[in-house]
């Protein structure tokens, strides 16, 4: 069974940093591209970033480019999202997904507020 | 960026009704269209991929279709467990973009 378990969320002040992790199991992690998708409270889904199966290619939405970094450790079957210079508009539940949404984690809440 | 225009934004239907939700793509996305179901407080669940393919474990009352740049999700006979938000996603080009979502409720 595919499992994706996010961690690392919480309350953070504007301008500070936070790193999310997503531990994967139940499939060969190194064979799949992975992505982060977020959902602000009462809003729709928003794609954030994608990384290729081997980490050689990354893609970001414009609003996070230069502030967020997606990365992976295939030896640990773990996906990461380093978020710097956080803004109030980054407040959302962040989901880790396999590929373009084939499987989803339970999500982790990130609140950016002073 | 490719815009995905999803309609309706909300829908009220009765048990047993046939329900259709549509996403229109602003550019050609081929069949790179996925439908998700999201129940309150839960993670999204993939229902349809490749525009027309039923994901594993999804009831056969769900189906996906394409007509030009319009992509539809149809529930042939609405059941109470189908009450949820539905989202479409194009994944042919970055940034990947979602529709705004459809809230499906029981009448």
Summarize this structure as a short list of keywords or feature phrases.
heterodimer; A: 114 residues; mainly beta; seven-stranded mixed beta sheet; 11 strands; 0% helix; B: 107 residues; four-stranded antiparallel beta sheet
Task: Walk me through the structure.
The complex is a heterodimer of chains A (about 110) and B (about 110). By secondary structure, chain A is an all-beta fold. The N and C termini of chain A lie far apart (about 40 Å). Chain A has strands at about 5, 10, 20-25, 35-40, 45-50, 60, 70-75, 80-85, 90-100, 105, 110. In chain A, strands 2, 4, 5, 6, 9, 10 and 11 form a seven-stranded mixed sheet that branches. In chain A, strands 1-3-8-7 form a four-stranded antiparallel sheet, with no helix packed on it. Chain B has about 110 residues and is mostly beta strands. Chain B is built from no helices and eleven strands. In chain B, a hairpin with a 6-residue loop joins strand 4 (about 35-40) and strand 5 (about 45-50). The model of chain B has no long low-confidence stretch (mean pLDDT about 100). The interface of A and B includes residues 47, 104 and 106 of A.
**Would you list the SSEs of chain B in sequence order as H and E?**
EEEEEEEEEEE
What percent of residues of chain B are in strands?
over 45%
Radius of gyration of chain A: 13 Å
SS content category of chain B: mainly beta
Largest interface: A-B, 19 and 20 residues
Strand count, sense and barrel status of the largest sheet of chain B are: 7 strands, mixed
DSSP summary, beta strand count of chain B: 11
